[in-house]
Design a protein that fits this description.
The protein has about 260 residues and is mainly alpha-helical. About 70% of the residues lie in helices and about 5% in strands.
C-alpha cells in the first residue's frame, strides 16, 4: 500500500519559496492569519464607493490571490488539495447550522420565520478566511524543514536574550519549536498509524467470510471496531509523546551548543 504525504509535512523540492529564509515565511504566515481574520474596516467616509461589509471580502480575496501565487511558485502538486477535504465538511456543517437556526423577524406587528441570510454570509466569509490561512500554512510548512524552524526560533531567542537576559528563562525557542512542528507531525503520525493498521487487515480472500461472520453478530463487529480504534489512538499518542521528547532534546542541545 502506497503512503501519501501527510498534510503540512515538508516536501523536498527546488523552488523560490523553498529557498526563501524561514523567518520570512513565518512572518508571511502570521501576517496572512492576522490580516485575513481582522475585522477592522478603517475610518472611511460614509460616501465611500465601497461598502464597509465588502472590505473583509476584498481583503480575503487579496490574500487568497497572494497565497495561490506562492502555491504555484512553490511547485505544490494539485494532489495536495485533496487532503483539504475536511474544509468542505466544515463548510457543510456551518451551513446546516445556519439553516437550522431560523431568523425571527417582525413586520406590521406580525412575526414570521425566515432563513438566516446574515448567518450564511458570515459562515461563507469564515470558511473563505479559513481556506486562505490553511493554504498559507500548507505553503509555509511544505517548503520549510524542521531544522530551519529550529534554527529560526533559536536565533530569535538568542537575539532577544542579548537585549533582555531574563527572556532566556522562558525557553521560548523550545516551546515554539515543539508547538509549530507538532502540527505537521500530527498528520504524519496518524497517517503512519493508519497505514500500519491497514497493513494488518485481513486479505481479500478472508474478507467475505469475515464480513458474513460479523454481519451475523453486530455486537462483535462493534467490539472489533472499537478495539481497532482504541489501538490506533493509543499508538498515535505514544508516538506523539516520543516525538515531543525527541524535539525537546534536540532543541535543548542546540540551545546549549549556542
Amino acid at each position: 500500500m502506497k503512503s501519501e504525504p501527510a498534510l503540512f509535512c515538508y516536501r523536498l523540492a527546488d523552488s523560490p519559496v523553498h529557498r526563501a529564509p524561514a523567518w520570512l515565511k513565518i512572518i508571511f504566515l502570521v501576517i496572512v492569519t492576522l490580516r485575513t481574520f481582522s475585522k477592522t474596516t478603517y475610518a472611511l467616509p460614509e460616501d465611500f464607493f465601497i461598502p464597509l461589509e465588502v472590505i473583509p471580502w476584498l481583503r480575503t480575496g487579496f490574500y487568497f490571490v497572494l497565497t495561490i501565487t506562492l502555491f504555484i511558485a512553490a511547485k505544490t502538486p494539485l494532489s495536495s488539495l485533496k487532503r483539504l477535504k475536511f474544509i468542505l465538511v466544515l463548510a457543510a456543517c456551518l451551513f446546516l447550522i445556519s439553516l437550522c437556526t431560523p431568523c425571527i423577524e417582525q413586520e406590521n406587528e406580525a412575526y414570521f420565520i425566515s432563513v438566516n441570510i446574515a448567518g450564511l454570509k458570515n459562515d461563507m466569509l469564515y470558511i473563505s478566511r479559513f481556506l486562505v490561512t490553511i493554504l498559507a500554512s500548507l505553503v509555509v510548512f511544505e517548503t520549510t524543514s524542521r531544522l530551519e524552524l529550529f534554527d529560526f526560533f533559536v536565533q530569535t531567542e538568542n537575539t532577544v536574550t542579548r537585549i533582555i537576559p531574563p527572556f532566556k528563562k522562558l525557553n521560548a525557542a523550545l516551546i515554539l519549536s515543539v508547538t509549530i512542528t507538532f502540527i505537521p507531525e500530527v498528520f504524519a503520525c496518524w497517517s503512519r498509524v493508519s497505514l500500519a493498521a491497514a497493513a494488518r487487515t485481513p486479505t481479500r480472500k478472508k474478507e467475505f467470510r469475515l464480513f458474513w461472520k460479523l454481519f451475523c453478530s453486530a455486537p462483535e463487529r462493534l467490539r472489533l471496531y472499537v478495539s481497532s480504534l482504541n489501538a490506533r489512538i493509543t499508538a498515535f499518542f505514544l508516538n506523539m509523546l516520543q516525538y515531543a521528547e525527541e524535539v525537546r532534546r534536540a532543541v535543548s542541545s542546540r540551545i546549549d551548543s549556542d
